[in-house]
From TrEMBL:
PANTHER family: L-THREONINE DEHYDRATASE CATABOLIC TDCB, THREONINE DEHYDRATASE, MITOCHONDRIAL-RELATED. This is L-threonine dehydratase catabolic TdcB. It comes from Caulobacter vibrioides (strain NA1000 / CB15N) (Caulobacter crescentus). InterPro entries: ACT-like_dom_sf, ACT_dom, ACT_ThrD-II-like, Ser/Thr_Dehydratase, Thr_deHydtase_catblc, TrpB-like_PALP, TrpB-like_PALP_sf. Belongs to the serine/threonine dehydratase family. The lineage of its organism: Bacteria, Pseudomonadati, Pseudomonadota, Alphaproteobacteria, Caulobacterales.
Length: 400
């Protein structure tokens, strides 16, 4: 067996009316920022906020009646779990999801709320996966792999059919790679419909599993990436076989570009992207020369990001843009000093966010005081103007 356009078109017929037909829109602002002509496919608008519903539903609809009655099982800590749980409940198919102990509680609760039986087992995904296969054998359930399955790939490939229907002139598709289910389906459909379209894989630099397999070397994977949805240590065997002949290149993405992409989606498109969901935009930011002037289709493949992480990413982006700056000022420890410094900052139109006052640091004179003042400004130039005003007032700051 392999994957072909006919299987993807058949999947599209099954999914019609069962999932969101998400919009694919041209973004003037992202186009201006990146230098490419950017079209965004908003898969974060699916009910479970991720594209994974497509493959999960296609798989469920292809089960025999006996398999549907017995139920399915999967190991997942993310979007696959929620997509399978939601559509399993809709179709009356019992769903069991095995999750590792490290799964955030909110994801466990969402999966339960969608109607699945959740089993918490093991410290890692591999542990959960092994337990899921054990339960499959014991209970006669059907195992639904999150990516290494032709039916799953066919469901994900329906994204490309819709994109090329909405934007037939697309020239290049940068697609996130984790296990390879999404890019396998998308590449198969896109290349069949438009052979000259370029398919570019996007991997987090901390988890270069596909890149390593292409080069025939061991993958050195690990670290805390915000793109945990594609932080896979080993790409699928079936997916690799499908997509490798169709792939034009793979790009590795460092964390700052992933963070910037999440922030841009929020601030420019007013929509929420998880780290993996923003990977294709991150590729345009990290490698602008590869995409400049090209008609690029970006799949915003998911929006399930922890709210605290999102807040941290947005704040860190303000720091990178120097709209938030922490300034250290050392002066005489006398009444009115802080008021004077605050007056200078206020007169320049900046906002004081936080003040830390330190008299005990040994590198500060005994009669001196050290202030760490976090300020909010309009932009990097405004920050420099505030710092210059402090220097002229006799309080030279340094950025912490």
């Amino acid at each position: 067996m392999t994957l072909d356009l006919a299987a993807i078109q058949a999947a599209a017929g099954r999914l019609q009316g069962q999932i969101e037909r998400t919009p694919c829109r041209h973004s003037k602002t992202l186009s201006k920022i990146t230098g490419a002509e950017v079209w965004v496919k908003f898969e974060n608008l699916q009910f479970t906020a991720a594209y994974k519903e497509r493959g999960a539903l296609n798989k469920l609809m292809l089960l025999s009646e006996t398999e549907k009655q017995r139920g399915v099982i999967a190991a997942s800590a993310g979007n696959h779990a929620q997509g399978l749980a939601y559509h399993g409940a809709r179709l009356g198919v019992p769903v069991t999801i095995v999750m590792p102990k490290t799964t955030p509680f909110v994801k466990v609760q969402h999966t339960r709320d969608f109607g699945a039986t959740v089993v918490i087992e093991g410290e890692t995904y591999d542990d959960a996966n092994a337990h899921a296969r054990k339960l499959r054998d014991e209970q006669g359930l059907t195992f639904v792999h999150p990516f290494d399955d032709y039916d799953i790939m066919a469901g994900q490939g329906t994204i490309a059919l819709e994109m090329l229907e909405d934007a037939p002139d697309l020239e290049i598709l940068p697609v996130p790679i984790g296990g390879g289910g999404l890019i396998s389906g998308v590449a198969t459909a896109a290349k069949a419909l438009k052979p000259d379209i370029r398919i570019i894989g996007c991997e987090p630099a901390m988890y270069p599993s596909f890149t390593a397999k292409m080069r025939g070397v061991a993958a050195h994977c690990g670290g805390q990436t915000i793109a945990e949805g594609v932080a896979v240590k080993q790409v699928g065997e079936l997916t690799y076989g499908v997509v490798r002949p169709l792939l034009d290149d793979v790009l590795l993405l460092e964390e700052p570009y992933l963070e910037q992409a999440v922030s841009l989606y929020c601030n420019v498109e007013k929509t929420i992207a998880e780290g993996a969901g923003a990977a294709s935009l991150a590729a345009l930011l990290a490698y602008p020369e590869r995409f400049r002037g090209k008609k690029c289709g970006l799949i915003l493949c998911g929006g399930n990001i922890d709210t605290r992480l999102l807040a941290s990413v947005l704040t860190r982006e303000l720091v990178r843009a120097q709209r938030l700056a922490s300034l250290r000022i050392i002066g005489d420890d006398r009444p009115g000093l802080l008021s004077t410094v605050a007056s200078v900052i206020g007169a320049m139109g900046a906002n004081i966010i936080e003040v830390n006052h330190n008299r005990l640091a040994l590198d500060v004179p005994a009669k001196g005081a050290e202030f760490d003042i976090t300020i909010e400004t309009r932009d990097a130039q405004h920050t420099q103007e505030v710092m210059e005003a402090l220097r002229e007032s006799g309080y030279p700051p340094r950025v912490v």
